[in-house]
């Protein structure tokens, strides 16, 4: 790849990231501060959601919402899931699984 083509790729990267962020489901915007919009958190101690299976994410979110997953930092997630509907959970899980 020529230097010119390579630099074009680097110029386009921020635009690709921006386009991706604007497609994020509204229900997932509350999660971004900790998990990042693509599910790859910058903070140690916050789990990576990116590429995780949607079914696993859905089950984890329902467990937090229903207070069945406790201990560790689960109380943080109980707060962020308490108002989510089953539909919200499906959409959010699909988003992070696909990223
Ligand atoms: C204030 C920071 C914070 C916010 C905001 C937050 N999370 Fe979390 N999340 C965490 C932490 C810390 C954990 C680990 C909790 C534990 O110990 O069980 C976690 C765990 C999870 C898990 C379990 C991951 C696994 O591997 O089992 C999922 C799924 C998840 N979060 C999704 C979300 C979603 C979806 C939102 C938005 C609705 C959200 N989180 C908002 C900090 C946050």
Report a brief summary of the structure.
The chain is mainly α and 99 residues long. It has helices at residues 3-22, 32-35, 54-65, 74-81, 86-98. It has a single domain (3-98), classed as Cytochrome c-like domain (Cytochrome Bc1 Complex, Chain D, domain 2).
Explain what you see.
With 99 residues, the protein is an all-alpha fold. The protein has a single domain, classed as Cytochrome Bc1 Complex, Chain D, domain 2, CATH 1.10.760. It has five helices and no strands. It has helices at 3-22, 32-35, 54-65, 74-81, 86-98. The longest helix has 20 residues, at 3-22. The chain is globular, with a radius of gyration of 16 Å. Heme C (HEC) binds next to helix 2, helix 3 and helix 4.
Compile the SSE list and pairings:
Layout: H1 3-22, H2 32-35, H3 54-65, H4 74-81, H5 86-98
Helix pairs in contact: 3-4, 3-5
Bound molecules: heme C (HEC).
The site of heme C has 19 residues, from α2, α3 and α4.
- Distinct ligand kinds: heme C
Instruction: Please provide the ordered H/E string of secondary-structure elements.
Output: HHHHH
What coarse outline follows from CA principal-axis ratios?
globular
Q: Could you say which structural class the secondary elements and strand pairing correspond to?
A: mainly alpha
Q: What is the residue-averaged pLDDT? A: 87
CATH superfamily: Cytochrome c-like domain
Number of helices: 5
Number of domain units = 1
> Segments where pLDDT lies below 50 for 5+ residues?
11-19
* Fraction of residues in helix: 55-70%
> Major beta sheet, specifics?
none
Report the count of strand segments.
0
Q: Per DSSP, what share of the residues sits in E-state strands of 2 or more residues?
A: under 5%
Per CATH, what is the topology?
A: Cytochrome Bc1 Complex, Chain D, domain 2
Q: Tell me what the CATH architecture is.
A: Orthogonal Bundle
The Rg value, from CA coordinates, equals 16 Å
Distance between the termini: 27 Å
The CATH C-level class name: Mainly Alpha
């Amino acid at each position: 790849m020529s230097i010119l083509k390579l630099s074009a790729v680097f110029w386009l990267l921020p635009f690709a990231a921006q386009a991706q962020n604007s497609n994020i489901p509204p229900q997932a915007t509350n999660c971004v501060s900790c998990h990042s919009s693509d599910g790859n958190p910058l903070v140690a101690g916050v789990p990576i959601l990116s590429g995780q299976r949607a079914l696993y994410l859905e089950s984890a979110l329902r467990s937090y919402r229903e207070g069945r997953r406790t201990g560790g930092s689960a109380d943080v997630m109980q707060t962020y899931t308490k108002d989510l509907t089953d539909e919200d959970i499906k959409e959010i899980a699909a988003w992070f699984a696909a990223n």
